[in-house]
Amino acid sequence: MKCRNFFLVAAGLAIFVSGDSLADNVKVIANSSVKADAISAADLKRVFLEQRIALADGSRVQPVLEKGGPARAAFLEYLGISEDDLQTYYRTLVFTGKGSMPKELGSDAEVVAYVARTRGTIGYVSSAASVEGVKTLAIGVPSGSVERKLITRVEPDYPETLKRLNIGGTVRLRVSISAKGNVVNVELLGGNPILGESATIAVMKWLYAAGSSRTITEVSILFDEH
To answer: I need a surface site. Which of 78, 188, 196, 212 has the fewest CB within 10 A?
Structure first.
């Protein structure tokens, strides 16, 4: 069996907190019309602050928020903005004619249902939520000034014994990428060692776009049946 959901996170890309907290608590989801399979942390923030309406691949996106709850709290922490400041920010956008209030929905299920049927939407739900009918976006953050696009991704096997015992969670890895784009080294930073071994085997087979130099990034992989 394979791990169905995973998130890519680079250290230090969120202004106030590490991106690991997002992968532990939140899935970023999108309508199937969105071409991208991943979104950089910087673009994720820009989209939800309505500073951009399209991703790097040209996909036009519209943010959807979940009202209250742990997922919203984790997401706002990741964006580095408080609830009051976010509301003030959106009201200012509306007042100045530079944006509108994003749609807010009351639960994970409502967000998933809305994103599934609404072209171009992007939202977030708790990590335990069922995301049938939508695509889960990996969060890829460049470790340098130029983002290394993930071209070939191999999903890790979810060890059957651990899955049967409901042993899962997030594995954190430090990944070294050569200038040619192949992964040359993977170091386990945290998480279950057995899951870490499975994740390491898979990530060593990943291929990134070529770059000007070797880069190092941190990746989080969530082992979860949902």
So the answer is: 212
**Regions of the chain short of the pLDDT cut 70:** 1-24, 56-57, 140-147, 213, 225-226
One-letter identity of residue 62? Q
Sign of the dihedral through C-alpha 140, 142, 148, 154: negative
CATH number of 20-139: 3.40.190.10
d(CA 148, CA 177): 9
Q: What is the CATH number of domain 150-223?
A: 3.30.2420.10
- How many whole angstroms separate alpha carbon 22 and alpha carbon 6? 12
Please provide the size of the chain in residues: 226
Q: How many CA atoms lie within 13 A of 136 on its CB side?
A: 22
Structure tokens at 183: 């992964």
